[in-house]
């Protein structure tokens, strides 16, 4: 029995892999909301969070790499209380509760 042909023939669009980068996201469906998060109403570019690329709402800076952080990405070290980003903070799940450790305190924990 021969293989059945495609019922859509030439009307079906090609299914190719598409690379979606920052340019495509800023022009896409949520372009207005995305631009409001990155740009101030005055049109001046605000500082973006190094972890999630949202606009920074405060003056929180990672104590290890000194990158700007928004309120949702701030992690406080369990050992010394310093602020760290998601890249520099190490989450220790060995206890009952998760502990965030900065790179300095993580060296002494192991």
TrEMBL record:
MF (Gene Ontology): CD27 receptor binding
InterPro entries xref list: Siva
GO annotation terms (biological process): extrinsic apoptotic signaling pathway
Top-level division of the source organism's lineage: Eukaryota
Matching PANTHER family: APOPTOSIS REGULATORY PROTEIN SIVA
Protein name stated in the entry: Apoptosis regulatory protein Siva
Organism of provenance: Colobus angolensis palliatus (Peters' Angolan colobus)
The organism's taxonomic lineage, starting at the top: Eukaryota, Metazoa, Chordata, Craniata, Vertebrata
């Amino acid at each position: 029995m021969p293989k059945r042909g495609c019922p859509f023939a030439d009307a079906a669009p090609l299914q190719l892999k598409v690379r979606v980068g920052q340019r495509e996201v800023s022009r896409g469906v949520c372009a207005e909301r995305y631009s409001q998060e990155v740009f101030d109403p005055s049109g001046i570019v605000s500082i973006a969070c190094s972890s999630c690329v949202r606009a920074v709402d405060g003056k929180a800076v990672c104590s290890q790499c000194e990158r700007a952080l928004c309120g949702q990405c701030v992690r406080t070290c369990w050992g010394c209380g310093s602020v760290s980003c998601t890249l520099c903070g190490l989450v220790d799940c060995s206890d009952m509760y998760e502990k965030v450790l900065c790179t300095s305190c993580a060296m002494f924990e192991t």
